[in-house]
Amino acid sequence: MGAKPTTLLSLEDIDECCELTYFSRRDIIRLFDRFYRINPNAVKANPFGVRLPAADIFASIEELKCNPFRQRLAFVFSSKQDDCFSFDDFVDLASAFCEKAPASVRASFAFRIYDFDNDGLLTASDLGRLIDFLTCASENSPKLLERDEVVGYILEEAGVEGNRSINEAEFQLVVKKLPDFATSFKLIM
Ligand SMILES: [Ca+2]
């Protein structure tokens, strides 16, 4: 039957992942097992080099299966921007939205996800697309962030009018005023 997934990881590998994320050794082992199950043969052949299609990864994660932000997540977290994730990319995604990640880290990734045209600014156009994403999502699909009020707040607090745009520092300030942000913008994997 071949090796168990955990034997593919050395303690050094695990500790390196721990250092770069908010996870414990046990978390890393659990995530690796999850990654392995998506395509055991490919992962076994090249545990850290293999890049699995983001679509396969999302399909295996209940919380992401129907998430309207799948494409944005694939873009932001695929280190080679090839719509595929290495194990490191997968861990980065899980770490960014885990419970231990500080609100500022989650906000930083939220900013990149909402910046649909990747120009480093949230413009009215980005926020408009964000509202579309949130309102077009199926009623009963799980969403990474189900926050119509957040969108309203962002517009109001940042005073977006005309061509006004929000940079990441301003976005962080807006998010600080949202007590629910840290709890709503999370993903348990
Ligand atoms: Ca933008």
From TrEMBL:
One of its GO terms (molecular function) is calcium ion binding. Keywords: Calcium, Magnesium, Metal-binding, Repeat. Residues 102-137 form the EF-hand domain. SUPFAM superfamilies: EF-hand. GO terms for biological process: calcium ion homeostasis. This is EF-hand domain-containing protein. It comes from Daphnia pulex.
